[in-house]
Amino acid sequence: MAKHSRSRAPKLNYAHAALGAVVIAGALVPTQIAQADKLPLADSPRVAALAGAPKEDAARVSAAGKAQTKAMPSAAAVLAEAKKQIGIKENAAGGGTKFQNWYVNSQRARETVARDGGSVTAYANAAWCAMFVSWVGEQTGARPQVGWDAYTVTHAKWFKANKRWGQTPKPGAVVFFSWSGSKSLDDINHVGFVEKGNGDGTISTIEGNTGNGVVEQRVRPTSQVVGYGYPTYSG
Fold first, then answer.
1. How far is 106 from 171, CA to CA, in rounded Å?
2. Strand order in the sheet with 225-229
3. N or C: where does the chain have the smaller number of CB atoms within 10 Å of the terminal CB?
4. Which parts of the sequence belong to the Peptidase C51 domain (predicted)?
């Protein structure tokens, strides 16, 4: 979850969490990449099934999944919550946002430290684009569908493992970027929400930890999109 350097040209290249290292006292500490996918990203019935839920529980998991889907907010509600956060900015140390503070105190932080190594407190000043997406999911009740993590690559792989991954921009979709134009999930640099596809090779988005460490609306070229994760919203 190390941050990129804060060079201002370009402004786009420091906004993701890296699994290969964590920041502790200003140093990069290697982590255990082999453990990356051992823990489920969200406590959804689908993830429980992927994690090896007993076969006899299949009916219960299916019923729970249907009930959970009905309880999900709409894409519009999730985007409205994300939009309310526009303008929130990190401090000079790269921290101080409510998104990072929430993650530090979450159960997921302890799980991702167990997976990646490092310290829970390191998230307080880590790149927070994925924490922003996760926080919005938590606040709106959409976390089981939006997922939660501090590492963009694992977040994307969770969507793909749950067969909710594709190449079409949809309002409320979670969009994953690679500034190099790579289509490999392992090369993902950044994440945000899709507001809409613009039909001209660009998408409108709401993203955290972009520009100079701010929540902003952006227009991005689809050439930088690796793919989209699709939460199952109520409408």
1. 27
2. 165-166, 225-229, 174-177, 190-197, 202-210, 214-221
3. C
4. 104-232
Distance CA 165, CA 162 (A): 8
Structure tokens at 3: 């941050």
Amino acid at 115: R
Name the pairing type of β-strands 214-221 and 27-30. Answer: unpaired
Residue of 172, 234, 180 lying closest to 203 (CA atoms): 172
Per-residue pLDDT of 120-133, as tens digits, reads 999 999 999 999 99
Query: Tell me, what amino acid is at 174?
Result: V
d(CA 189, CA 183): 11
Residues 6+ apart with CB under 8 A from 122: 1, 22, 23, 24
